[in-house]
Design goal:
The protein has 452 residues and is of the alpha+beta class. The protein is built from 16 helices and 11 strands. It has one domain (82-178, 190-321, 356-448): Cytochrome p450 (Orthogonal Bundle), CATH 1.10.630.10. The strands form 4 sheets. Strands 1-2-7-4 form a 4-stranded mixed sheet. It has a 3-stranded antiparallel sheet with strand order 3-11-8. A two-stranded antiparallel ribbon has the order 5-6. A hairpin with a 4-residue loop joins strand 1 (39-43) and strand 2 (48-52). It is globular and about 60 Å long. The protein binds protoporphyrin IX containing FE. Protoporphyrin IX containing FE (HEM) binds at residues 87-88, 99, 260-261, 264-265, 268-269, 272, 324-325, 328, 389-391, 395, 397-399, 402-403, 407. Protoporphyrin IX containing FE binds next to helix 11 and helix 16.
Length: 452
């Protein structure tokens, strides 16, 4: 069964409608020409905004001159009560220092050490799904649960059933409901005399989450001092000194970083896994191939990851079609000349994985699901030039390597044990919340393979 082709797309929309459409149906309601254009300009009475969809321009912004295009703080504004000065929101010297401390925790060798925790989380996800029953279930809460479990086990060596872990998980869900990432209000002009208010609910949820995380980091600081701390990601980050200044994160800064690891690390992976399962449910021939490959998962051993090649191709294709972070917003700090246009200081530059991954002038069969594309010339070329699910350059996702192991492992483990079938009439509509989610869930029928 082939997923329904996107309905015909409108030709023109305004910036405000474009932003609203991200919150409605980002697959079909956006103008068709955005998927062909190398660049689009949105004019508002207050500022200009440019979507860049030309690999050369994307490279300029992300790879060649990233420091000239800092993150726009308009977009991150909604997350600040929760994330404080986390690495996701900072810029310049503060951001560089934070990355110097964080990056060593995500190096290849550390990922090998995190693997047993990922494996245990994958087994726990398989166990939980035994309760699915014969009726279709919404798969998104399942994948969120599994991805949150991975984060807590790898970061703090605790499973999601741990009292604090489970409370953080549930509070985050509430936060997300009150505070979308794509805060349309953030695109309105700022008047200095008019404070940008957050909903009281947003602030109090953020306070509760930060208090819970503080308990975890305080306990960990005490264990490090006592020499009893487990050797996990939290210990690594809390004990790493900046090679340039010798400083470590102070207590508050560590809470900021844990909040972003949890948020960036579980929301994104959950979204990716849910869409991948949907794509496999609608492409049963691929699903059966992956289930066959998954038989290699007989014992916990890091080397097994390199054997899950089909699973990796499928996961990669799913990240292309449904990139969990659909767009990234930067700001110009000097006058630019993009293609034939002058771009003023203070303009917004939108880099959109969503559009670049479906850019009609670059990709063969841009809207189609074809995991074998990565072996073709076009697929290889596009992977180099037009594929940025984890962003690219200096500010690339810290957890990219982590996510590719986690996603491929969880996917294969679930497919080894279950078959996922699409439900007639239940076609998920992608909308941008914190990440790309489905408007009304992703409903699939889950059947244990031993009973199938
Ligand atoms: C499929 C899973 C994931 C996807 C698609 C993804 C995607 C991204 C993207 C696109 C960005 C850049 C955002 C921007 O520049 O505006 C980013 C940043 C980030 N991600 Fe991920 N991510 C994933 C998983 C993870 C995981 C598992 C972790 C940590 C455990 C993580 C931690 C971070 C952090 C800390 C940043 C901020 C980096 C910086 O600004 O320097 N991500 N991610």
């Amino acid at each position: 069964m082939i997923p329904p082709k996107p309905p015909s797309r409108p030709e023109r929309v305004s910036l405000f409608r474009y932003l609203r459409l991200f919150r409605q149906d980002i697959l079909s309601a956006q103008p068709a020409k955005l998927y062909r254009a190398w660049m689009a300009e949105f004019k508002t009475p207050f500022f200009r905004s440019y979507m860049v969809n030309d690999p050369k321009l994307v490279k300029t912004v992300l790879n060649e001159r990233p420091m000239d295009f800092p993150k726009s703080d308009r977009i991150g504004e909604g997350l600040r009560p929760l994330l404080g000065d986390s690495v996701f929101l900072t810029n310049g010297a503060v951001w560089e220092r934070q990355r110097r401390i964080i990056d060593p925790a995500f190096e290849g060798g550390r990922l090998r050490e995190a693997f047993p925790a990922m494996w245990e989380a994958a087994e726990a996800a398989v166990d939980r799904m035994r309760n699915a029953g014969a009726d279709p279930i919404d798969i998104e809460p399942e994948t969120s649960h599994a991805a949150a479990d991975v984060i807590f086990r790898t970061l703090f060596s605790i499973p999601i059933d741990h009292e604090i872990a489970s409370e953080v998980f549930h509070e985050f869900r509430d936060y997300q409901r009150t505070q979308p990432l794509l805060n349309i209000a953030a695109f309105l002009p700022r008047f200095k005399w008019l404070p940008r208010g957050f909903k009281a609910e947003t602030k109090s949820t953020a306070r509760r989450i930060r208090a819970l995380i503080t308990r975890l980091t305080d306990e960990r600081a005490a264990a490090i001092a006592a020499g009893t701390a487990p050797d996990d990601l939290a210990t690594k980050i809390m004990t790493t000194a900046d090679p340039e200044t010798g400083e470590r994160f102070d207590a508050d800064e560590m809470v900021d970083q844990v909040a972003i690891f949890f948020l960036a690390g579980h929301e994104t992976s959950a979204s990716a896994l849910a869409w991948t399962l949907y794509l496999l449910a609608t492409h049963p021939e691929w699903q059966e191939r992956l289930a066959g490959e998954a038989q290699v998962l007989d014992k916990m051993d890091f080397s097994v990851v390199s054997k899950l090649k089909l699973s990796r191709d499928v996961f990669r294709e799913s990240l292309r079609l449904y990139p969990p972070v659909p767009m990234m917003v930067r700001e110009t700090t000097c006058p630019e000349h993009f293609r034939d246009r002058d771009v003023k200081i203070g303009s917004q530059v939108v880099v959109s994985p969503w559009h670049l991954h479906r850019q009609e002038r670059l990709w063969d069969n841009p809207d189609g699901f074809d995991p074998s594309r990565w072996a073709t010339e076009n697929g290889k070329q596009c992977q180099r030039d037009a594929y940025i699910p984890f962003s690219s350059g200096k500010r690339v996702c810290t957890g990219a390597g982590f996510a590719m192991i986690e996603g491929v492992l969880l996917l294969s483990m679930l497919l080894k044990h279950y078959r996922f079938d699409a439900v007639e009439g239940e076609v998920p509509v992608p909308v941008a919340h914190l990440t790309v989610r489905s408007k009304d869930g992703i409903w699939l029928r889950v059947t244990p393979r031993d009973n199938a």
